[in-house]
Amino acid sequence: MNVTPHGLRWALLVGLAGALFQPGLGSAAARGDRSPKTDPLTGVTLAIDLPDSGTSGARVRRMWEQTRTLVVKDAAANLSDEQYHAKRDSVFLSWTHFQEQLYELRDPGVEKAKSVVPDVLSIIDDLYGFGGQPEPRIETRDTFKRAIDARLEKVDRAVKALP
Predict the structure, then answer these.
(1) pTM, to two decimals
(2) Residues 14 and 86 in one domain
(3) Which of 13, 14, 95, 128 is the S-S candidate for 88 at Cβ 3.0 to 4.6 Å?
(4) Are 92 and 121 in contact (CB under 8 A)?
């Protein structure tokens, strides 16, 4: 078979497009792994156990219960910026993987459940910092700690209201 460079580029483009637009490709469901323990791209061990059954509201409640406990414990620990940053990805990636699972669910409360995730991710960012290199966040973290009860209660109310 004689393949021209143009033909090879076309075949690669079609194959790549098919892979990118195939539903669920790379998702936990596509791998048959509903509750991964590590992020497949980074190898980071997830800090929160991802629920693999129940309604979207029940799953969010289980995720939030674990996360809330961890956040309260870590906020009280008064760690260094580097120590907080080192914990960030395992918590943050747990919620982004969970968010992917929510998009695959079809129960009536899923839209309301999805709306809780940004508030949780915001709490994670404020305590642990953002992705990339650690940066000094003492003032931001201190402000967060002073308002932690109100921030946690806001998410508590949202989670409790889920169907």
Answers:
(1) 0.75
(2) no
(3) 128
(4) yes
**Is residue 82, in this structure, part of any structural domain at all?**
yes
Q: Write the CB contacts of 114 (distance below 8 Å, at least 6 apart in sequence).
A: 56, 99, 102, 103
Tell me, yes or no, whether 41 lies in a domain: no
Q: Quote the DSSP letter at residue 127.
A: H
pLDDT tens track for 8-63: 344 333 343 333 333 333 444 333 444 468 888 889 999 999 999 999 999 999 99
17 shares its domain with 63: no
Residues in a beta bridge with 46: none
Q: Could you give the CA distance from residue 79 to residue 41 in angstroms, rounded to a whole number?
A: 27
Phi, psi dihedral angles at 4 (to 5 degrees): -85, 160
Q: Is there a contact between 162 and 113 (Cβ–Cβ < 8 Å)?
A: yes
The contacts of residue 52 (CB under 8 Å, 6+ apart) are 34, 35
